[in-house]
Records
---
Amino acid sequence: MATEIIRRPTRSSPWRNPAIRGIVFQVLFVAAVLALGSFLVHNTVVNLRRQNIASGFGFLDREAAFGIGESLIAYSPADTYARAFLVGLLNTLYVAGLGIVLATILGTVMGIARLSRNWLISKLAQTYVETFRNIPLLLQLFFWWGLLRESAPQPRQAWEPLPDVFVSNRGIVFPVPSPDPVYGWMALGLGVGVVATIGIARWARQRQARTGQQFPTGWVGLGLILGLPLVVFLVSGAPLALDRPELKGFNFLGGHAVSPEFAALLLGLVIYTGTFIAEIVRAGILAVSWGQSEAAMALGLKPGRRMRLIVLPQALRVIIPPMTSQYLSLTKSSSLAVAIGYPDLVSVANTAINQTGQAVEGITMIMAVYLTISLIISALMNIYNRAVALVER
Amino acid sequence: MMTRRCLRALGIIGVALGFGTTAQAGPTLDKVKQAGQISCGVGTGLAGFGAPDSQGHWAGFNIDICRAMSAAIFGAADKVKYVPLTAQQRFTALQSGEVDLLSNNTTDTLQRDTDLGLNFAPVVFYDGQGFLVPKKLGVKSAKELNGATICVQPGTTTELNLADYFRANKMEFKPVVIEKRDEVLSAFFSGRCDVYTSDSSALSADRLSQAPNPDDYIILPERISKEPLAPVVRHGDDQWDDIVRWVVYALIEAEERGITQKNVDENLKSDDPNVKRMLGVTPGMGKALGLDEKWAYNEIKLVGNYGEIFDRTLGKDTELKFDRGLNNLWTKGGLLYAMPIR
């Protein structure tokens, strides 16, 4: 009888199983993080209590009792801390949003200018990039703020470059149209124009794909977007009452004022971030191989269309990811506002922290807000990135 | 600047989180003795009260309080580390144990005493908030300031009193809030604001030491608040609190009894039992505080009594020429009143 050797699989210890080992390590890691976290929270609570330092978010309902220089919404010292935080948040979003748009425009123009074959233009763009990229942002902010403050006259001697536009060391004040119901209808007209233009563009593209016939979408769209509000404006009798600024007492009343702090912050952020965006745009365009342009030329596309239809769509794939981090850093750098007295979130939160003594809560709120803003910007940019990314089949 | 403030803010969080508990564990006096110096939180530079001189040595009224502490504890006036703090940084620095006391023109208020976990020593300077304006504005009273743009430092009682005053008088104002003192001042003197508001003593000092031409500026007559300025310690160490309290009282008591830097040695031979107790000739007081029996003697010998400090830093011997006013002894019509040393 042949002896049969039964080969049993050697029972290895579970420890040798990579899958189980992985799970064990992950469980241990999560447990360690949770333990550390709860230890820290516990210690915080105990230590705050021992020193009798107030804690909790109850202070948000209390009266803030401090003034804020600029606000997009109505605010008075009689409002709550929560509202003061909201004012700061809106100020941050305002300067960051405007900054992102303007920096993108400036950066794109400068990036393309640096590639120009015109020696003067490309050298000017290069000088701009190399100068402002290499000076710390905080110094630039102090520079612009000092410049705006020192070079402009007192309100009583304000310059008036245009009728009713005043430049003084309190900022630039200009007339704005007084509120009128017609403006609401004009906004509606604008909205209708935009929607109609999108529809026409889609129809025109399909028709071109079908028949090869082109349609002047650009001009028709422009006509609709500008024309509709204009028609509404003219039909309703062109109400043009202006809210004019007037020197009353110490300052200008009425109109809209841009403070030197806001202007300096915006200028600093835009000019600084613009340099990085310029380099990103230049790199993106250079990343598209010259063969693509040559092929476009061989097909007979004019330079403008070549850029718009062939080069930029490919360049965008390279440009978008680093652009996201520039937008994030611009938003976060806006917190330097505190140094030059623009009441952004950090500035307001700092005051609140100091008046209530609740540093832990205040810093937590600042961190949560910046984290949220950053995540939203990243998410939006990722969606856009996916839209322009190379579709692989 | 941003980073520094953040670090300080994180500092307290760090302490709160438990990284710095050792700073709280033992009495502050032991820590100070072990370190061989007192860590004293001072301002970032205010003429008369505390500013580095041309050689970088700190001098001024608040500085002398720190030096008196050092004299009482170490028998030498120079065992102090000065930590310059902005209005916003000061409380977190104290709470987190970075400094052992604040001598920093800090106003004593209920909320700070409770919510912030602080204890205030006796008031060393009675002040009130005022307004500094350029003469050419032609303003004579704070009541005419409706609509003015006002420069102010954040994290101060000044910021809150300002809002209160304008609300109470149904006036509007636009605050320009800047953290650094020198930035606030440069903004004001360049005309960014119509008004600069702070404690009136600080206004006088800034007008004299910082204005391009002091005569172009005036301080309006209104005092819109009470600003009792006092050294501050954190909750949780009663012994340290007591030391600061009695170091201040000893300065005032010495002036009241006519004991000066010059005659303190002669006073050692005094027959007055009060003087003997205070100067440690009759022992007991120093032991009660946990200090050397010569604590008060050293203070007066090395730093001087309250009046001498005042005259030397703010009063008649200086350019500031502050009047003693409220900051005079109770026997001379002021508010300074030391508790009995017995």
---
Amino acid sequence: MSDHAHDDPITRRDALRAEALESILVEKGVVRPEVIDAIVRRYEQDIGPMNGAKAIARAWTDPAYRQRLLADAWRAIAELGVPTGPEIAPLVVVENTAAVHNVVVCTLCSCYPGSLLGLPPSWYKSPAYRARVVREPRTVLCEMGLEVPPEVEIRVWDSSAEVRYMVLPERPAGSEGWPEERLAALVTRDAMIGVARPEPARLAHG
Amino acid sequence: MHGFGPVAVEPDEPVFHAPWEGRVLGVLFQAVGFGWTSIDAFRHAIERMNPVAYLTVGYYGRWLASLETVLVEAGVLAPGEVDARLEGRRLPPAPLPEGLPRPVSGYERTADVPPRFAPGQPVRARNLNPAGHTRLARYLRGKRGVIHRVHGAFVFPDTNAHGRGEHAQHLYGVRFDAGELWGADAEPSAAVHVDLFEDYLEPA
Amino acid sequence: MADAPPGGAALDWNGPSAPPRRNGELVFETLWESRLFGATMALHEAGLFAWDEFRDRLIAEIGSFERAHGARDEGFRYYACWLAAFERLAAEKGLCSAEDLEARVARLRSRPPGHDHERSTS
């Protein structure tokens, strides 16, 4: 990753401003560069969708855990010992069923369960997704490759306040008896946002 | 204030001129981060400093003095305890104040009044068009929905984010059918669930 | 970060059966985005502002863009909105005035080309 990768004048201007801002804050002792380094490293390496995937995989194999996850998500996630970010905004896990498909958005900005899943993908933050998924969810999901049958209700969760949402997708057919690690590998970030299904069992390796 | 002369810029100025400055920063981060004091109390202490001291002790000197002030006021340090330690004396041990550290948790609060609305109750999002900021998205204004969840009480961002106080109030999960939001163009079998503060809602 | 409970499954997320970490997308596209994100989080974690205070300014910047351009992706730059929101907050909190920032930008702009070649990585 380099600031030379995006060489348009606007990006270069922003890079310069961000650097200037950081240098002033460092000089004033308001931030320390090593604290910034540690935070970036944490989000690049430790906090990411693989953490949410563990919770999903456990919920698929353990019905009591599933109920705990749906009732009090952070408490259930704490059982897993995964690294999380500092935000302790309430988290609600919403389950997909044969009757309901859930999808998450933040129409106002970009809110996302980042403390568990890491940073959201660019498309999640885009004006088009944020405006359209509340208005025409079935169409948007179809464009993104997910067909939801007309008899299934699509429930769009708009994270307008402090509560963050994560989808508990349906377990893929053919994955019966699989160990948790193998199941977790089927769970993508997009499935936990609700714009995709988990990987099919037959395509997984290992 | 005027008349202080040209700003002296130190070429290649280091982040900290001396290790103690970095230590003060570390203490401050933890004092605030763990909830022994608040950043507002700390800023206020700087504002209250004796003007002569303010101008003579330097940037981290101000932080050091203010940190001591707020920790004494919070009851974490005894008055004069630091001076005593510098003189080689230790004051008698005293228990830390009850209620500290106060965890700097999220924005959940206990509201003064019970929730106005209950699950299953129909509500309407008010037609607010404030000049300032609001979390009530445009697409919801004037629309009718149903309470599906009472989340608890939270700090109200419309006021808190702009220094006008917390005004903690109840937050509700409200369900809006697609047909109500989008009329004839709505897709079938779709709904939007949004989290709305009590001030945004009225009975329907 | 909680310790794993005794007897809890230790999931192997570095080995061959590891779940995907990034779902095919970089966490940060550029160095400056990562530094800006880290600086914002560092100040928030130190208690210098409530997250609402940053979030509302971010909402305002995104809203400004959308009022001018509609809900179209073209031209939308998320971290440009983030930077503008953070600059405003830093100025309001007395952490970095607009004048100081402009002066520093001018100073950095006058650096010779290639000054940062030791620092950039790909």
